[in-house]
Amino acid sequence: MSLFRWSGLALTATLLLGCSSDWVVGPSGHFDHAAATFSCGPADGPAFTIYLAPDPITSLQPAGVFVRVYVPGTIAENSGTTLPISSHSNAGAWFHANPTDYEIATGGFLRIDSGSEGSTIEGEVDLRFPNAGHLHGAFRADWIPTHVGCV
Hints:
mainly beta; 10 strands
């Protein structure tokens, strides 16, 4: 087999494998909708959760497939920062294939560019899941008001 032909096959296989499990956040991607809300943090401190989904998010937990990203602290404390997502970080992410099946992100990051509690939050995610693959892109999350009773 010629070097040219072998290189072409290798490039094609690499592109197919790299794109096969790629999910995109934002317009014309698979996860076009985002929402944010209060959560309970460590020792009942402040925290927030960002949800990403292919369908509009009108309630929590979203119906169907969604991604949940948990961040301890306030949006103001985390604004302008890039938070690592790993098994050793304070922030975490879960891919929910349905209401009962989920998997935890093995790596990635969440960046909060702007926003505040009760307002729209903008940023970027880049998350890797063992089976669901790679989810990345910019998001704009509308705030969903909730009354969280932390215990």
